[in-house]
Design brief:
Blueprint: H1 4-16, E1 19-23, H2 30-45, E2 49-54, E3 72-73, H3 79-82, E4 86-90, H4 102-105, E5 110-115, E6 126-129, H5 136-146, H6 153-166, H7 177-188, H8 193-201, H9 206-217, E7 220-222, E8 227-232, H10 234-240, E9 262-269, E10 272-279, H11 285-291, E11 295-296, E12 300-304, H12 309-331
Helix pairs in contact: 2-5, 2-6, 5-6, 6-7, 6-8, 9-10
The protein binds manganese (II) ion.
The site of manganese (II) ion (MN) has 6 residues, from loops.
Length: 332
């Protein structure tokens, strides 16, 4: 449940600070970008000194977002950046998933954390964290309304992008009446869903579609059809001329298979091995990710794993098999 008292404190802090530094999470997705740029727009029209930044660049497909040119891709955040500023972390469950250097500057900055991850570490001074919303963009939308600031069209475009990408175009179990009410407010503010959908979901190069095909061709079943996985290695990404942001959402395709309740997608890209995990009840993606030091939502989580890529693929599969077995005996 959202704490209205905390939301009111956030509104007060937003109003009283003249300088905002907004931080998006690493490997940014639609939600963190949408929230970051919407708040950037709000800050601008409220006459604040405002910056929006993150460790990694905005993926190609989000280049239509208003103010994307103003997004600063920085290796590290230092004390100078946050001097006399309010630091606002959006959609980021831990300081480690934000910008390098954040942990060091947290003690000197005033900070607000706006997020919906159930495993959020509450690392800021003020933490507006609500695991019941389908996207952090839902919280920001409610914040704009509650603050009496209204929603400009540019902000609505950013927020709708965050909302619709995080809840799989209103298909996931996280989607609620509240998500749809939020969408309605954004449409009233001028959003055209079909336009955003075309940018986000139908703006693919042929090489990327083939890269998706490469993964799909490697589909491997396990645990008597309850689990499925595929993977893409470094060379696959190189051939396609793509980075890992080109395969956002691909893991969900495994859940199309009848009976599959645990989906694993391992990638070797951007110099790191990653696993994306999606589950259906009663399985928890977060429980599997946490074995590898990762985290996320109950049914959508991930982890970064060191080591030889094919060993990582085998290790994640073995862990998921064990987890499914353990759950089966626990449910008996
Ligand atoms: Mn999110």
């Amino acid at each position: 449940m959202m704490d209205m008292a905390v939301m009111r404190e956030v509104i007060k802090k937003f109003s009283s600070s003249d300088k905002w530094v907004i931080l998006c999470h690493e490997n940014p997705d639609g939600d963190t970008m949408g929230c970051g740029l919407a708040l950037y727009s709000l800050g601008k029209r409220l006459g604040k000194k405002v910056r929006v930044m993150g460790r990694d660049p905005i993926p190609e497909r989000y280049r239509f977002l208003p103010y994307y040119h103003d997004f600063e891709c920085c290796k590290v955040i230092v004390e100078e950046d946050i001097k006399n500023a309010l630091m606002i972390c959006v959609d980021t469950s831990t300081a480690a998933r934000s910008m390098p250097g954040l942990k060091e500057v947290l003690s000197v900055a005033d900070s607000v954390n706006i997020d919906h991850h159930g495993d959020n570490h509450l690392y800021c001074k003020l933490n507006l964290v609500d695991p019941d919303v389908s996207a952090s963009a839902e919280l920001i939308t409610e914040l704009l309304i509650e603050g009496g600031w209204g929603i400009e069209e540019e902000e609505a475009i950013c927020l709708y992008t965050g909302l619709s990408t995080d809840n799989g175009n209103f298909r996931f179990g996280t989607t609620t009446a509240r998500s749809h009410l939020c969408a309605a407010r954004l449409l009233e503010a001028g959003v055209k869903p079909a336009v955003i959908d075309e940018y986000v979901n139908e703006d693919m190069k042929p090489s990327i579609l083939k890269l998706w095909g490469q993964a799909l061709m490697r589909t491997e079943m396990f645990s008597n059809g309850r689990g499925a996985l595929f993977w893409l290695k470094k060379e696959d990404f190189e051939e396609a001329g793509a980075d890992s942001s080109a395969v956002d959402g691909l893991v969900n395709k495994l859940l199309k298979i009848t009976g599959v309740r645990v989906a694993l997608f391992m990638t070797e890209a951007n110099g790191e091995n990653k696993v994306s995990i999606r589950t259906k009840t009663p399985y928890s993606a977060r429980d599997i990710a946490s074995v590898f030091g990762g985290g996320g939502h109950l049914q959508a989580a991930g982890a970064k794993i060191e080591g030889n890529f094919q060993d990582v693929v085998a290790a994640v599969k073995a862990e998921a098999e064990k987890y499914i077995d353990d759950r089966a005996s626990a449910l008996k």
